[in-house]
Amino acid sequence: MYKSLIISIAIILFLTTNNISSKEYADRMDKEISVKRETRESFAAPIPSLDLNKMRLFTGGRHLFRRSWTPAPSSVKSLDGLGPVFNRVSCSGCHVKDGRGRPPKKDGKFRSMVIKLSRTEKGEIYPDPNYGYQLNDKSILGVPFEGKTSINYTVVNQKFDDGASVNLSKPIYSFHSLSFGQLHEDTKSSGRVAPVVFGLGLIEAIKEEDILKNADPKDIDKDGISGRAHKIIDVPSKNIMIGKFGWKATRASLLHHITGAASQDMGLTSNIFPETNCTQTQKACLEQIDGGDPEISDAQIERLLVYMQTLAPPRQRRAKEENIIQGQNLFKKVGCENCHTASYVTGEHPNHPELSNRVIKPYSDFLLHDMGKGLDDEVGEGKAKSYEWKTPPLWGIGLVKIVNKHTRFLHDGRAKSIEEAILWHEGEGLRAKNNYMSLSLKNRKKLLDFLNSL
Amino acid sequence: MYKIKFTLFFYLLFSFSFIVKSTYAANDSINSLANSYANLVSHYYNEVSLSTQEMHNAIIKFVQAPDNNSLTNAKNKWIAARSIYGITEAFRFYGGPIDGVNKYGEEGPEGLINAWPLNEAYIDYVKGSPNAGIINNLSLEINNDTIIAANMSEDDADVSSGWHAIEFLLWGQDFSLETAGIREASDYLPTNEINIRRRAYLVATSALLLEHINWLSMEWLENGEGRKAFLNKNDPGGAILTGIATLAGFELSSERIATALDSGDPEDEHSCFSDQTHNDVKANFNGIINVYLGKGLNGESFSPSISEFVAKNNLKLHENILEIINETNISINNITVPFDKMLSEPKNGPGRQAAEKTVSNLLVLAKNFKEAGKDLNWEVIIAE
Question: How close B5 gets to chain A, by Cα (Å)?
């Protein structure tokens, strides 16, 4: 008799506890693939579940990420082949502490930001004839660098409904010390700060169908938000895939992303991008000795790849505090979550089972959206128009000030705070922005507190 | 019906009292483990503090009268202090004073103490760049603020402070597999402005290191904030094991040994200027053993130790751990000295193979620590 009583109590206990834990599970990022700490190293940890036998590849990748490359020929053969033209000599030069770059400080030096160039002719996108798709502002000895950039800001004032106001800054670029003459008259320029590099393997593991589910290119549901997937050709596999990486979702795989950055930012050739990064007019650049064929080896790429794939995203902090929960509700109510999609369950990752079937909370739909005139800098990329931007993930956004000691946001770092970044939203984001502007000061602060807890 | 309820009531009461009792007992011994560990940490930081003070004194003496003798003396004191510091790296990786954030929101000094790899041209001249670095940049004043602000501000390898910065300033670049770096003592003669700046830089960065180590030592004193925070942890056993498991399975095995083995560059070693990497490896490993066994620098015993808990819970696992510790000791001693010479051996060279063996042993050790944590219901997270 009481046996059955105990059993039923046990069942009830089991069901209640089980229910709580599964609810918690759905609401929080998987602990096995995320970390929670508030230090300068917040973005630098491997996922806790990483197979110990892969640690060696991870730390090898991290080491390579931080090492400086040198011009060829050099005594350290494995690390020569820099340039001839480049932006920085190491990955971590831009992605400091695996974190976010910023526009130049007062000294005007570009350390973690590059300038993209392109011109559009009859809807097609072309590089600048002399400078290509990106301005390389540094070079090795004996080769001219391409040119230098200065930034001036114009002020744009924005008023909240309660009368408070904010001065936003819009960058205007000018160029000097150009080695191959003026830019083409139709060439436009766009600043790009280095994005954070954690959680990328998990993003890679998001199923394409889960991204397409949120796409509504013709805005059939008439909510003012369309959102389209950027279908691109993945250079390593030659497959047509959905771009998930880059400010305009131009890369679908991390292999493509890493080798592309090595080529464009550091001038390193790889088996994926074997050509030296010089345009035909740059004679001295083309004639330089290279640092091996390719300069960055497949073994080195593999280590970098494992490192990038298994850097853990930060887990939300202070999630149970009342103001944070209220801020999260406001985030939804205002409409932020219509594009900054909170969570996914990843699919199968081809290389790392540790990344498969995990609950993650990147806060992005990885779709391109028309962000309106304010953010249109007339530089398109691939099939992404100049006014279209991929919803950037928000995870870790509140830790940037701790890790990178700044709060510069958006693709060119023009926003000097998270709030300024919100105020730049137009186009498909206009409604959410207007909703935000109509909130009381207290509620605006709660929403920002929530973002800072991510 | 009453009877049933009554029996059930007693049954539940009995089982609850049993649970409560056993938890109390466990809490008691966990508290004493946390205390003895805190005493051990305090002991080691005190020792590093004393030896770093000696190094700092030797550096001041060297700068006052720079010659080969005073330089050699300063270098020897650096080696001595660092060999104790390496032990204390077993106290990292769980958010303690060294690398955590305290209740005032201040971050531990690890990044200023031990950052690596170090781009030496960021500090001073290097071969091919005679005017490189902060020392040659006359627009920067040499003081603590400059050094702290410059540390990893624009690139992770732009390290301006800590052990490896001092190491570079004492030894200089190493281009030889036979010797360490050979910086001339005359670099520190006050004969020109740059040398005067170099003198100031060396003294300032040494003083800064001493300051940080003294701070760590204070944090773990009887009433130190760091000790209090540690003793208040929910799972001190998990923290202690996380520290040594991460040092074994991540930092020492992968970051410091395997990465050097894989890089293909002999000078891609931890203490590349002084050729002291073999001592770094030994010191880190000693840290792991000493925490596990509760041993002080001169054989003092800090009991209870983690090993006592593991042995009581699972004697076989404890014995496995002792065995792998033993094997690792052997493989570490078989690594060719200096480390850069080992790195230049062919793939199947005996020193390289010993280094490979050390890496695999350390991974096994880390897995065993993780296992031990699971057994004891302590959370062990490697490398978070």
Answer: 8
